[in-house]
Structure prediction request, 238 residues.
Amino acid sequence: QAQLVQSGAEVKRPGASVKVSCKASGYIFPGYYISWVRQAPGQGLEWMGWINANTGATKFEQKFQDRVTMTRDTSNNTVYMELSGLRFDDTAVYYCARDPIPATVTSLRNWFDPWGQGTLVTVSS
Amino acid sequence: DIVMTQSPDSLAVALGERATITCKSSQSVLSSSNNKNYLAWYQHKPGQPPKLLFYWASTRESGVPDRFSGSGSGTDFTLTISSLQAADVAVYFCHQYYSPPPTFGQGTKVEIK
Prediction:
């Protein structure tokens, strides 16, 4: 059964960077896209971008374009999301989520399944 | 971007009673090419990953109890729990994947009355 397990909570200062990991199991890791989605306190879910776990190709939502990096380590079945220049309003729970359709045939217009359990990133001075 | 609006924000329903959540999209998420609604529903319990309930608006994910149903088309969608159980206490949210970027409803918190 496909599963995504994320790294633990982080507390960062404004201006710092945070790197969150998402380790996949139960499926062929390179075969799928992984998206990152965040939820700030009291806010709705916000898509940040995706990474092709095989090729490493990425696409980001415009508002994150200049600050986000997504990478993968195929030897460890893990994807990473790094957000730099942290601001107070980056405080949120960050989720990874898989496109359930294989990367070779996906339209990238699909639901997400599974999701990681979420990683709370707190930006505080 | 397509805006997804759920209602209500929260509801309290007695055990065994029906719970109904609506989700409206600011644009149609129905594709004319394949006649599918690009709409998913999830259940989210604290400390757990969101769980997929439905995709294509009404296709139940394997293992989801049949007291859950998804319906609707175009811009108006409904998630119904026909007989609320204690295990159903959660936040439910909708997700459109018709037009990038994917967007989500704000969530509806379901509690026991």
Chain B touches chain A at residues 4, 38, 40, 42, 47-52, 55, 61, 93, 95, 97-98, 100-107 (CB under 8 Å).
